[in-house]
Protein 1
Amino acid sequence: MVKKSVPMERGEKAVAEEKSSSSDIARFLKAAEQTASTPGGRLVFALDATMSRQPTWDRACQIQASMFQVAGAASGLAVQLVYFRGFGECRASKWVTNPASLAQMMTRIDCRGGTTQISKVFMHANKESSKHRIAALVYIGDAMEEPVDRICDLAGKLGLKGVKAFMFQEGMDRDAEHAFREVARLTNGAYMRLSSSSAKELEELLKAVAAFATGGKTALENHRGKSAQALLEQLKR
């Protein structure tokens, strides 16, 4: 049976299953060597866009520019939006280096009902990290409806590639908290629970992660605010 293709937003690509290969590490090391001297940093901005996430999506659309503002134009922060929604739909945008482009992409996307597809997000991040040196992955969600061992396996691979996952949870789902904390541990990243009504809190966290993505722990240490210090305390030295 021929599957009907799903239209994509301009500049987006479908996230596909990643096939295992014994040469994955070799390809990554080669790509890392080629991009190690590239200025700025890369950050994967991943969001759960299922129906319950609409309020968070709207807030993220409004404040995503803060990631670029704190990094500064000279730093060359590049952000890639990855989101999932509906029935098996998971998309990734092109890499962008200005807030207007990211905001334009985000405002064209509406949330749709469906289950989580975090494994696809992590598979995509692993694939991208074999092409580019990625400093951090930000994930915002409120649920985890997949086998936790699969998620942790993919997170471990990200950790080996130096990609730190910053897992931000809304709500009180215990399964999600357990999985998000384990992902943070495996990637030497950080976990934080978000207030569902605090846009300021999310803005400060995105600023802090952007500082880390462009300047590492030193930049995060120099970044003012409680959010930066809370994240710094969790990052392994």
Protein 2
Amino acid sequence: MEEVFRLWVYLSRTPLLWLTATLVAYAAADWISARLRRTPLANPVLLAVVILVLLLAATGTEYRVYFDGAQFVHFMLGPATVALAVPLVREARQIRRLLLPVIAALLGGSITSAVTAVAVGWLLGADPATLASLAPKSVTTPIAMSIAQSIGGIPALTAVCVILTGIIGAVFLSPLMRAIGVSDEAAQGFAAGVAAHGIGTARAFQIGELAGTFAGLGLALNGIATSILVPLLARLLR
């Protein structure tokens, strides 16, 4: 116990405390998810977010203080996204075979995601800055925040929308696919990557390597497509 106490004293005085808390929260969430047989409702990211929110509320810690310590995890989003190229190389032949369906699904998913988000926000009376923040919600966080800032949105709000979109996509991916009769792993994975970015991709890898590979492809291509389409949409609406 004395060694544990010394470790706590050391961590509490350094930014490592919240990095450690983030990693421990995710490990605990993943353990819970595994014990519940990876049911979609027990998504590790969702559970980890709940654990961290409760911890921050219980300790009265501001988000800025938390992020100062945990920002290394945010930094690793870039390398983790690039690492998705490894399974893409393995499945390059199948990707080339499905190139036309992939392009069609990408354009449909990217346009639908941005247009429906903006349309719903507009119907609910959202201001222009909020609408701009909602448009890139289905791409990975660094890209989404950059797009939002370039079109007059609020990057912090976009980050929240991105995380919520990813969690919702990961939770409802499998039940929705079963409900509409889609059993092909490549189709499930690509839909997850386009609609729910990195969190959806993580869920797709739980379905299978092929699903995860196509989710990574969808994540990457949707980042490119949204970076082009959303600014064009913003100009048309001005």
Protein 3
Amino acid sequence: EMGIDSIKLIDRRLNTPAILKIVDAYVKEEYQGNLVDLLPLFSGVTFSKHMSLAKKIFYLQFPLTMMNPFKILDFADAFSELEVFIDNRKLDGFVENMPSDCNIGFCGDCQYCLKVAAETVKIDSDYRESRISGYKKVLEYLYKKGLSF
């Protein structure tokens, strides 16, 4: 009804348990828990605490030719395990309750998505600030090296 003809559930980089979790939730049409667990970028790949820093950077496709290998260690905090909780059950009815005059991408006065996110997404403030700081260090370094986004 929304015009979606196909959807990609998994990524080739996922491990078997992550694939099974995603497919199981899709088949059952429900999931009790953290929605982040079902997002291919985060489920069992990029931000796993068991993955080496070098592998995380590889999966994020950083331009390693522009990076000093010793400098990468300074960015370890930017690639720590993702500590965000999105309460999947609180998203029940999200699409059905979306205002009919919603202009996706240009929120303006509606604020529907912002209100839902405030109730649904939980991020520790100290963790959030450390991640922002880490990302800024990476972007500043890449910018100085001449990489533009």
Protein 4
Amino acid sequence: MKFSTVNPATDKKLSDYEYITSDQLEAVIEKAHQGFLEWKNKSLTDRQGLLKKLAQNLGKRRDELARMMAQEMGKPISDATAEIKKCEATAVYYSEIELSSLQLHEIKTSFKKSYVAPCPTGIIFGIMPWNFPIWQIMRFTVPTLLLGNVVLVKPSDQTAGSSLILDEVFAQTFGNIQLFKILLLQNELAPSVISDRRVTGVSFTGSTKTGRLIASQAGQAIKKTVLELGGSDASLILPDADLAKAAQLCVKSRLQNNGQSCVSSKRFFVHRPQLDTFLTHFTKAIETFQVGDPLDIETKLGPLAQKKFKESFEEEWEHLAPFFERSWKMEGEIFSKGAYFAPRWAVMKEHSPRTISVEMFCPAAQIFPYDTIEQAVQMLNSSDYGLGASIYAGDIEKAQTLAVNSIDSGMVTINDLVRSDPALPFGGVKDSGYGRELSSHGIFEFCNFKSVGIS
């Protein structure tokens, strides 16, 4: 069965692809299993050497990958290039990470000798989205490989071309041993991969609704899952914050990746007496984002990934209009074309489940005035999501206290936007999922900490 990719900027078809068949799938899983049996016995230094080679090979395809991403999902090519560079840097980071945590750990017990051995478990199945088509695969794959597991990935159909280029990079790096494989897989076949005895874990990035389904299927098969789901991240601008700087960073967060990032701020809490000043800075910052062809190096904001997304969020914004105190929208002829969605903001009359029930995966901002910091924190935490949050403040110590003791999220930044770093664990709480990627935590998500006791 075939499917096609479409350029969201032009609404024109890019390429046709073929889904993998059941027989082909069985052969791929078995080859990955054989790859695991070989890979798990490689030394850690050998694995690190190949990860460094992976970074080098990825760099050689950087321009090609960036162009494909820009065409397939509308990411500005400068952002796409930055995404690949981040992937390269992450592979290098893990190729150089200190290995003591991956060694045997001797522990004094009632045994004459005892230790804990961190052991890989097998094939880890990744189901990954389109919005960061290379980074989200690499973010999960690289630490998983370092431990000694192997990876199969079902990417989004929308970014099939980008995924297949990445597949070629891995094949070039690892040769005949199959440690990574892209599966152009129909959704109906995913449960059979999850339940396969050779597959030992599942990592999913996507919507909360689909995450519940994946977790249920994995639970039936007694497989561990890591879920990185949706977000309704918030920025809390405290009264002593630098409003101009805060507004600039808030806009950068909201508009990154054309407004299609789980960790971008979508709700903004501003002290009521400072609201007008903040809005002036906020609007000016939005207007600096040049909208245009994703392949143009000057473009900062491209289209949404699909035309149907534009139509859906335009409708949702209209439904929210009765809750607006006031609103603003960028104008321009380009917003009538393809999947281009005009950046906008609205000051909301209330913070309620109705006004925050939908994750606005587009360049639209909801701004909520507050009277006290306690009120702002209560509103911020009232969301079902808990991925990331940002605090903008002059008093850093006070902001740190709020970050650690009061904010319900997996990540908090102070005077900066939320973003991933290979040295820090990445993930959320509540309906934003569980488990962590990156850092040493990402290495050990799919690990058997095997206890060995010797009499």
